[in-house]
Amino acid sequence: MNYFDYMTDPHRQCAIVAHRGVWQDAPENSLLSIQRAIEAGYDVVEIDVRRTLDGEFVLLHDDTLERMAGLRSEPGQLTLQELTSTSLRNRDGGSDNNLTDEKLPSLRDVFELTRDKIFIHLDIKHRHVIPEVLAYAQKMGVDQQVDFWADLKTEDDVCWIKDNIASHDVPFIARTHLEHDDADAQVELVFRLKPLICEVSFKDIAQVEAIRQRFKDAGITLWVNTLDGVASPGFTDTAALKDPDSIWGRLLRAGFSAVQTDEMETLRSYLAAQKVAKARTKTTV
Question: pTM value?
Answer without folding.
Answer: 0.96
